[in-house]
Amino acid sequence: MTEVKIWQWSLIIASSLVLFLLSPWAKDTNQFFKAVQKKKLPNTFMLMGSLIISWIFAKSITNAANLGLDFGIVGGVAYAGYYLSFAVAGLVIYRMRLHGKYTSIHHFLSSKFGKSAVTVFSILIAIRLFNEVWSNTMVIGSYFGPAGTSSYYWSILVFTGLTLAYVLKGGMSSSIFTDVIQMGLFTILLAVILFTIFGKTTSTTVTEIANSGVWSFETGLNLLLAALLQSFSYPFHDPVLTDRGFISSPKVTLKSFLWASILGAICIILFSVIGVYAQSQGMQGQAAVEVGKAFGVVILLVINFIMITSAASTLDSTFSSFSKLVAIDLKFGTSLKFGRSSMVVIAILGTIPVFLNAEILSATTISGTMVIGLTPVFLFWRGKAPKISFHLSVFSGIFFGFLLIFNWFPEALIFTTGKYADLLWINFWGIICCLLVYIIPTWIKK
Questions:
Q1: DSSP code of 356?
Q2: In whole angstroms, how far apart are CA 324 and each of 80, 88, 306, 390?
Q3: What count of other Cβ atoms lies within 10 Å of the Cβ of residue 367?
Q4: What is the pLDDT along the chain (446 residues), one digit of tens a residue?
Q5: Cβ atoms within 10 Å of 170's Cβ, excluding its own
Q6: CATH topology for 1-358?
Q7: 100 in helix, strand or coil?
Q8: Measured between alpha carbons, how far is residue 17 from residues 36, 60, 164, 168, 178 in Å?
Q9: Among candidates 327, 347, 350, which has minimal Cα distance to 164?
Q10: 334 by DSSP, 3-state: which?
Q11: What are phi and psi of 334, to 5 degrees?
Q12: Where does the protein end up (predicted)?
């Protein structure tokens, strides 16, 4: 084993053990499912930090760096477009809690559209959580060896097991508590990387980075507009995000979500600078890995640690959200034992695709298209709509998702060219279709 590999294994094991020792032990369901500690709810800073680091997952920053490599800073800005999701979700959840007195997304759906809507929605978010496990752990594996090698698989299994261990202690309390630590680490490590890129040993300037890329549809704008369109539905199928919308007071929640939208987008754009630098140096492959190798062992380990930090924060949030979904929202069993057992189940099931060579970016783009049918459901949450409106809209979104997967969408309806053109226009036409099928039954009923 090389010196780098020894350090990488040390980082995974040491960081996980520290988080395990620091994580609070949940003694009741309020601590485990709602993050109530000493009768106190998370404040604005804690909630904002938890939101940001839960979404700046290993998959996201890998994609941001690679998009910087492909399209320059335009690629980073395009991917940051998804962070409009926080502002959208924050405003909608704030009003739902204030005016509708809803205590969760499931509470809203069951009271307005009935049990069948809750079932369909729960299946969608279970798939989302399932995707989060493998798509993030695969990034960790890529730093230990090529896909398919024993070191690749072992690093994923060990990392998943260690993360599961500390979140089993405290559930949502562990998740939010460790998120604050992980957010602090992320900020420091990102600063180290940026200081290296803009340091005296390189000729890179801020102006050069800012002017990289071309603002055209072919070189990033397709993805930016698709991300902005998806932001009106994407956040609502992510319980990691929405669960945090019902923990603290409505005002604290709204402030946290709005700040997370701005600061999260900035973090993603700054991380894409790694890819922009890689592009300027003519590098190819995984941008973050190649830049790490170019700057030497220390920076490679820093990038490696940033991936471990961000992947762990997403993974622990995924486990705690899945546990709350099956225990509290679906009422399968509200005991601590059941909550902890469900975490073990999603950890095992979510690791299986690692051995099937799944694509990382597809976990974002395809799942985002599949749920565009949620757009009118949440944007028009106060309006009256029959139960059939929910199902028509949601299943229309799933239909357009399949059109994207199988490349069945008519080219005549795609009005731009380049990468992600199909993603943009399938989402554009899909959302229009979902809006129509949601509204038409309301008109008929009148």
A1: G
A2: 28, 23, 27, 23
A3: 21
A4: 577 788 889 989 999 999 999 999 999 988 898 887 777 788 999 999 999 988 886 778 888 999 999 999 999 999 999 999 999 999 999 999 999 999 999 999 999 999 999 999 999 998 888 888 888 888 888 888 888 899 999 999 999 999 999 999 999 988 988 888 889 988 998 999 999 999 878 888 999 999 999 999 999 999 999 999 999 999 999 998 999 999 999 999 999 999 999 999 999 999 999 999 999 999 998 898 899 889 988 888 898 888 888 888 889 999 999 999 999 999 898 899 999 999 999 999 999 988 887 665 555 556 789 999 999 999 999 999 999 999 999 999 999 999 998 899 999 999 999 999 999 999 999 999 999 999 999 888 76
A5: 24
A6: Sodium/glucose cotransporter (1.20.1730)
A7: coil
A8: 23, 25, 11, 13, 12
A9: 347
A10: coil
A11: -100, 15
A12: Membrane
Q: CA-based angle 180:185:186, to the nearest 5?
A: 95
Which amino acid, one-letter code, is at 409? F
Burial (Cβ within 10 Å: 0-12, 13-18, ≥19) of residue 243 = buried
∠ CA 227-229-234, nearest 5°, is 70
Reported residue count of the chain is 446
Listed by start position, the domains of the chain span 1-358
For residue 99 the two structure tokens come to 């005016």
Q: How far is it, in rounded angstroms, from Cα 241 to Cα 256?
A: 11
